[in-house]
Fold this sequence. Notes:
Elements: H1 5-29, E1 33-37, H2 65-73, E2 77-81, H3 87-90, E3 95-99, H4 115-126, E4 130-134, H5 143-150, E5 155-157, E6 174-175, E7 190-191, E8 198-200, E9 205-210, E10 213-221, E11 224-229, H6 250-268
Parallel strand pairs: 1-2, 1-3, 3-4, 4-11
Antiparallel strand pairs: 5-8, 6-7, 9-10, 10-11
Amino acid sequence: MKNFSKPMFNIRSLAAALFLMLFISPFISNAQVVGLDNWYNRETNAKTGQPFHYLWTDTENSGYSQWGELFKKQGATLTTLEQAADAKNLAKLDIYIIVDPDTTTESKSPNYILPDDIKAISSWVKKGGVLILMANDAPNCEFTHLNQLATEFGIYFNHVSLHPVLLRSWDMGSFTSFPDHPIFKGVSKIYMKEISSFKLSGVAKPVLTENGIVFMAESKVGKGMVIAIGDPWIYNEYIDHKMLPNDFENLKAATNLTAYLIGNARKAK
């Protein structure tokens, strides 16, 4: 009597493989990959010697662990780039975040955004990449090389510090007037202190302004886009109500921003 167990096993394996290809693989491949820079921003904690400040893995006030959770809730996967941007590592990303590049007071040997990096990032955006640039106030950010990148998209970070806040006078850092933009849908009040502003040119457009001063901007270039914010803004300290009074809605705005970035990355595919 012939033994059909082996062919049956192969048929079942083939059926399982087809199921994975047809029904599961699309969901896996459609997950947006969000890369957070840890090369241009590469501060280390003086006590531990470990990288910190605006990282997925930093769960203290200084980190982006809570923002990372928002991305994961919306189906994205997270990664960290510990090398300079180039065509190879950018090709693996749908969204790329650069925050607060180091000054010489933050790092003995800062990794500046160099011409080859700018060329790779600009090409990646034009092909459909979504880039978010988040600076800081002067003198807490390296503006010269950051602006060499940003001006590729009509955006220039001013070397200033606006929206100062004394002690915990929270309302000194409030914004309450918003445009009809997806980032601010359903949002009535956010907190952002000590911020750089922008000069815009070309295709760049303001997103958030106050008294004629631009605090957020966006630029659509090729198939991709760039969002620029003059502050790290939604790190753990100021994303929810751990520190902020209950009437601030940074968490809602952060959720909207996350969805906006993911949505634009999906459109570009």
